[in-house]
Amino acid sequence: MPFKTIVAIIQNEFDVSRVLDVAIPFAERHESHLIGVHAEALAMPYTTAVGFPDTEFIQSNAEICRERAARIEKAFRARIRMSGISYDWRSFESFSGDSALSGVESARSADLVMVSQAAPGLKESVAADIDSLIYEAGRPVLVVPHSAPLISTFRSLLVAWNGSREAARAAFDALPFITEADTTEVLVVDPVETSARRPDASGSDIAAAFERHGAKVTVSLEESHGRSVDAVIHQKVMDTGADLLVMGAYSHSWLREFLFGGVTRSVLQAGDVAILLSR
Asked: Are 100 and 128 in contact (CB under 8 A)?
């Protein structure tokens, strides 16, 4: 099933080129409707040292936000008009000024969401909250890497598989990518034996399901040998030259990953390959 409605989260001016370089050719190929989402922060009630409202500062800050929003919208519309695809632009004001948070409602009515990782050196306060977007949207999120070459047609896929609900959701959300890819590799890290299956048969069912859709699939079983799971996945991406990583997000609680780290957060921070995440 093609992706007919795509939401592009545009947090800053860097994202206009980075996200649209992937989203536009992708939307052209799937004949999709593309919805751009951007948010700016509401003017906060700043006060002077003696406690009076600093109206000059508030007005100046509001004007900066309006000008930035106008620049981003203008750049977005210019890029889209050159392509000729169907599109909408949605601009929001919120306390956080976070386009990912403001875009959750739009994302829930989309087939796919695209968002860029924060560029290196970008202040955390102006980076889109990708964690919340993945956790709250209920839709697959394609994360565009901040520095890797931009690709809109993925030829080599790596699917991280652990049999969880989140992994299953991501695997089937990725079917349109899997069926058009040249190769798909299912990676199982530290396969375990169950009452119904030996460790060496892990991943065979999901691989067979992909093959019934016409995909070319292989299964790889890897032992971590003391390494973290995200390190094993990252090494496999490097070894195979995969241009899209597919994985379930936040199999553990989001709060636990936020406080202590986890596979999802570690993979998101790497920035060297596009990632399709679902939960």
From this structure: yes
